[in-house]
Amino acid sequence: MKKFKIINNKWLVIVLIAAGLLVFSFLDEQRSIAGRSIVLAVTLDKMGSEYEMGIQVLKTDKSEKQEYINYFDKGESLSDVIDKLSTDTGGTVSLCHSLVIILSQNVLDKDNDVAMKYFFENEILCNNTMVVTAKESPKELLTTKLSNGIGSGYYLGQTLRKMGKDFGIIPMTIKDYFMNRFRIGSCVYLPCVGVEQQGETSYLNISESYVGNNEKSVILSEEATKGLSIVLNSIDNGTIPYVDGEIMGEMDIVKCSSKLKIEGDDKALIQVTATLKNSSVVPNKIDEQRCKEFAEKKIKEYVEACYEQCKEQGLDVFYVGQHCYAYKKPICEDSEYLDKVGLDIKSKISLK
Amino acid sequence: MKSIPANKIYQEQYLLLALISVITLKVVMLPQYLVSTAGHNSYLTMAFLIAVEAMMIAVVYGITKNSSLLELDIPKWLKGVFAVLVFASSAIKCTVLGSEGVAYISTSLYANVTWAFITLALILVCSYLAHKGAKVLGRTCQIFFWMMLFALVFYVTFSNFDFDTINLMPFEVNADLAVAGDKYIMWFGDFTPLLFMSVCPSSNNKKKRLMIWTIATVIALFACTVGLMIAFICIFGESGSLVGNAFLTVSSLNKIAYMIGSMDLPTVCSWLFMFVIKFSLLLYAMSECAKFFFGNKAIISAVCGIIVYVIIVFGIGNLKTDFNLATGWLRYFVLFAELGVVIAAYIAMRISKSKTSKKSADVCAAPSGGTCEKIQNNQ
Predict the structure, then answer these.
(1) Which of residues 217-276 of B touch A (CB under 8 A)?
(2) Does A28 touch chain B (CB under 8 A)?
(3) Neighbours of A49 (CB within 10 A)
């Protein structure tokens, strides 16, 4: 008969492993979530060789009162600044939950992505963190008091997430930022956010875009930003206005996407396919053919505005060089390829 | 009930073990390294080397069908040479590639917990699994397989990223692919631990069933390695050279991320299971080789575990040293051991079999050879 054992070998090993893990877990410093400062938004500016970093954290107390507090600090290296901010906040700064990072144009044009690579390579910010630039100063943007009482950084992050396929601004995540940086031309496009004042009310203006390549940059107008989204985003929300004699209305965008093709050796073709819905209040007076023509004209205007504004600065915003390279066109090796490649825009509009 | 020896596994278990052994450490840092060396076409290097690995696994299956390497009818000194080579290559792989997994757990799962604790936890569990043998490893695989399948289905259902195929173009076969293949060869050739198993048909053995399992394994093998590489390049383009922990970064991009935050837990958990099995498999190979010389004792597995622990924690200690070791001259030794042992073992097995069959034929041909049937049955 098998001898009864209180504990057999297998269970002894399991208990020993569990005990070992438990004991060793006490030896390491375990910071609980209460000991961390969960950051909602980050700002980054560069002044000379110093970085100025800002963070927005949410403090709650037992009375359920929420308060968005901003902290700013400067330093030669980002790890120093983060350490200083940890001291300021009284908890280890945790940036991985940040919804948005607001960069100054100084950082984008002069830092050569040193700071951004630090955040990205070391997984300090998560891949889905939105990247924007401030029209004036990131500090001003973060400290803006909005009428709804929500912290401006947090509000900006939430708003950008909802704007995914809207006509106009294209939200940019940190992973897409780097994907674009590594393309031919190194051109990145970001929402450019400004603060506007109306009486005592402050609000964020998110209608323009920044386009830059580490050396040169341009702020795209609202119209040009729409052109940018037609070519580089797939849109399912927004309107195109139209005026036909005395009739004024707008067309809702149901779906709009585009493809860039390289034809021959030096011709780029942007083929826009859009499905629109006429939302005029007087539909019976509307000529569908004229509507389509108007939409085509408008789309061409938007796209051309974007392309021309960027081309003037030598910025390959539609990644024509990358497409030429992908289709093995020798012109991409020419440093002046942007001037030599012609752009043609064709639209295929259907009305619902 | 019929008891199965500790190193005997079923065909399905062998396929699962081979799949996990090949995939596990190719989906962490390797995509980043390959992209940084060979750019957007680096998936071709991965595809080529995976195809070679799949073929070698078929050869290993040919050797281990019915008996493991150490049970083959070959000279004992040859077995000893094989054991030394496999012990060394498994120890190198276990420490150098194991460190990569430890680094991932230390930095991505915890906020820089020291390697000492993570390695200790792993060594305790994996040494135990290694000592228990291939049968336990095979069964563990079968149990965790469902978790892995769930993670894969979950990921495919909820994945959310722009599949920008322009990042894969132009299609070019150039010298960089060969350079990448040479530099990162240490990450390939994960088949020698499988030599120490004896594969037998399962009780519900049917040819069709095995064929389906084999096809599914090959598809999964390419989908999880080459497919992941292609997805990685489509998502990150050339900037993939900055992105470590490929499987985690790709799986964190899902629809749920925008609603409740990054939902990568199923992938992380299933990878952890895979890593435990892979680590145990390498320790198992080390233990089996050591047991060939020192006898079948539990202490042998424990000593192997201690050696690996000391090298990882005190010898390697950080990802930079680990990378230098993995891409240094050691890789050629590991490649030689991995390929050399399998090819030599196959040749030795064929010679030994042909000798035996010749002997039995001679016996059958002899006028007094009434034992022919008996000899053939013994074979």
Answers:
(1) 235-239, 241-245, 249, 252-253, 257-258, 261-262
(2) yes
(3) 7
Cα-to-chain-centroid distance, residue A132: 6
Q: Quick check: B242 and A123 CB within 8 A?
A: no
Return d(Cα A292, Cα B146) in angstroms, integer: 54
Under an 8 A CB cutoff, do B237 and A21 touch? Answer: no
End-to-end Cα separation, chain B, in angstroms: 25
Q: How far, in Å, CA of A202 to CA of B164, rounded?
A: 39
Which class for A203: exposed (0-12), middle (13-18), buried (19 or more C-beta within 10 A)? middle
Q: Is the pLDDT of residue B3 over 70?
A: no
Sign of CA dihedral A284, A286, A288, A291: negative
Torsion sign (Cα): A118, A124, A128, A134:
negative
Whether the complex's predicted ipTM is more than 0.85 is answered with no
Closest CA to B74 of B336, B295, B284, B344: B344
Q: Report, in angstroms and rounded to the nearest whole number, the Rg of chain B calculated over CA atoms.
A: 22
pLDDT, one tens digit per residue, over B89-123 is: 999 999 998 888 888 888 777 767 788 888 888 89
Contact B120 A24 (CB under 8 A): yes
- The tens digit of pLDDT for each residue in A139-187 reads 888 888 888 778 888 888 888 888 878 888 888 989 889 999 999 888 9
Delimit the CATH 3.30.300.210 region(s) of chain A.
226-352
Phi, psi of B274 (to 5 degrees): -65, -40
- Tell me, yes or no, if A26 comes closer than 8 A to chain B by beta carbon: no
SS3 label, residue A78: helix
- Tokens representing A113? 């992505």
Tokens of A110: 């002069």
Cβ atoms < 10 Å from Cβ of B354: 10
Domains of chain B from N-terminus onward = 8-378 (1.20.1740)
Residue A196 token pair: 């506007």
In the three-class reduction of DSSP (H, G, I as helix; E, B as strand; rest coil), residue A12 is classed as: helix
Give the minimum alpha-carbon distance from A195 to chain B in angstroms, rounded to a whole number: 26
Per-residue confidence band for A43, with pLDDT thresholds at 50, 70 and 90: very high
pLDDT (mean) for B143-162: 81
Nearest CA in chain A to B128: A13
Q: Which residues of A touch B262 (CB under 8 A)?
A: 126, 128
pTM of the predicted model over 0.80: yes
pLDDT digits (tens, 9 = 90+) for B183-218: 999 999 888 889 888 888 877 767 788 888 889 999
- The topology under which CATH files domain A226-352 is GMP Synthetase; Chain A, domain 3 (3.30.300)
Task: Determine what percent of chain A is predicted with pLDDT higher than 90.
Answer: 9
Q: Which A-chain residues 180-199 have CB contacts (< 8 A) with chain B?
A: 181-183
Please give the structure tokens belonging to residue B126: 């994996």
